[in-house]
Design a protein that fits this description.
It is built from twelve helices and twelve strands. By secondary structure, it is of the alpha/beta class. α1 (15-24) links the parallel β1 and β2. Bound molecules: (2R)-2,3-dihydroxypropanoic acid.
């Protein structure tokens, strides 16, 4: 008879995926504070074979070392910067993740933030709720900026960058991009986008949209030096990882009007710190890390997360392995 493995989930997933996991494994779902506090995770990981985690959970050396029986980590995310991958691999632990299925959802949110920010939708919602509508009746009291014919600069032309490019084309925007390697000319033509240098991207774009993974190289990629290069009429959109942007420098750039606004789905600290100056600025739209958060996508992510974990534990090929 096959062994029943024990699994810790730092948070529940879609019911059908959890049921599938429970058929084969003894599952403990953390039900307290989210993200699971390190102290609790250190205890709970002690005797489990598998771990299901999320981008908010830091799976560092301490946690991995404490997982004496740990054979597999399955993250409910495309990003895996929260896991010490090298250390886990040294210990023979398999790691699964959920790419591809969230490409469209994240690209949609990117476009949503652009609309929200440039047409001032959420800001307008605040105007109404604060009963200030009568203060913005003048013809030019509450104007936004049109999206069509603007230049969007995509930083990082992976799956999500490409999907944003397609959607931006549909909106009549010009697309330029920068990434480690330019696309083939053929693909550039098909996607209607043009590779430019990093400097040109920041200098020419009306909107900068970030689509890079978080690594040592991309840490604080957006900082005061870069904000100074951007147009003072430009907007920043971040649906990648919070630490790609130096938030302190961003706040200064917004206050000094070095850039015009920012749409942020990810933050240096999540949940955002109560003291964050971003909460006090009008020219900012904030979303609580919901890039992949649609019913369609999250259901697929749940399924993949569970399949990855089961396959890793029962020595089958993972659907997506890091
Ligand atoms: C991911 O999958 O990495 C997303 O940021 C989570 O929503």
């Amino acid at each position: 008879m096959k062994k029943r493995f024990s699994v810790l989930m730092t948070r529940g997933l879609h019911v059908s995926a959890v049921k599938r996991l429970e058929k084969k494994c003894n599952v403990v779902i953390h039900s307290g504070k989210i993200p699971i506090p390190k102290k609790i995770l250190l205890q709970k990981i002690n005797d489990v074979d598998g771990l299901v985690c999320h981008p908010y959970d830091t799976i560092d050396k301490d946690i991995i070392k404490n997982g004496k029986n740990l054979k597999a980590i399955s993250t409910f995310s495309v990003g895996f910067d929260h896991i010490d991958v090298d250390f886990a691999k040294e210990r023979g632990i398999k790691i699964g993740y959920t790419p591809k299925v969230l490409t469209n959802a994240t690209a949609e949110l990117t476009i949503g933030l652009i609309f929200d920010l440039m047409r001032r939708i959420t800001e307008g919602d605040r105007v109404i709720r604060q009963k200030k509508w009568n203060l913005i009746f003048g013809a030019h009291d509450y104007t936004g900026i049109e999206i069509a014919n603007k230049t969007i600069g995509i930083f990082g032309m992976g799956r999500i960058g490409k999907e944003v490019t397609k959607k931006a084309n549909g909106l009549g925007m010009n697309v330029i991009y920068h990434s480690r390697k330019p696309l083939s000319k053929n693909l550039e033509n098909r996607l209607k986008c043009k590779f430019v240098t990093e400097d040109a991207l920041f200098q020419k774009s009306d909107i900068i949209s970030l689509h890079v993974p978080y690594t040592k190289k991309t840490h604080h990629l957006m900082n005061s030096k870069i904000f100074k290069k951007m147009k003072d009429t430009s907007f920043l959109i971040n649906t990648s990882r919070g630490k790609v942007v130096n938030e302190r420098d961003l706040v200064i750039a917004l206050k000094k009007k070095q850039i015009r606004g920012a749409g942020m789905d990810v933050f240096e600290s999540e949940p955002i710190q109560k003291t964050s100056q971003l909460l006090r600025l009008e020219n900012v739209v904030l979303a609580p890390h919901i890039g992949s958060s649609t019913e369609e996508t999250r259901t697929k992510m749940s399924d993949i997360t569970v399949t990855n974990l089961l396959n890793a534990l029962y020595e089958k090929k993972l659907l997506y392995s890091v």
